[in-house]
Design goal:
mainly alpha, 5 helices, flat
Length: 129
């Protein structure tokens, strides 16, 4: 099985620095994506109510994990959305305009989910989708 997984992500290549993004994909699929998809399938099989799944991909100035670990590559890392959900005033800076919009959207969707069991119960200017 290990050979099949390795081949799927990197073929017959030897592990080198150039393959770090392929190996990151493998780790992400193994640790996050596959377990999430399996959980959702189980919820559906057991006739759960509405299921909401989000993928945070915004790359801004408050991406917590990337910022704390000085990661400069694009995209978002696991737990990067925490900088948009929680107070990070210890950074002593005002969020950029686009970052503040993401803060407002994220906190509104989470609050909506708590209040209404739906992150987007209605279309608004802030949440147009």
């Amino acid at each position: 099985m290990e050979i099949l997984v390795k081949h799927f992500y990197i073929g017959d290549e030897k592990i080198t620095e150039e393959l770090k993004f392929d190996l990151t994909d493998m780790h992400s699929d193994f640790s996050f994506n596959h377990p999430t998809v399996r959980s959702i399938a189980t919820y559906i099989k057991n006739r759960a109510g509405n299921i909401y799944h989000y993928v945070f991909s915004y790359n801004g100035g408050r991406n917590l994990v990337k910022r704390e670990n000085n990661v400069t590559i694009g995209g978002a890392s696991h737990a990067d959305e925490l900088g948009y959900l929680f107070d990070v005033s210890f950074w002593h800076e005002t969020p950029e305009l686009q970052d503040q919009l993401i803060v407002d959207r994220m906190t509104t969707m989470w609050a909506n989910f708590v209040k209404y069991s739906n992150p987007t119960p209605q279309i608004t200017e802030l949440l147009p989708v």
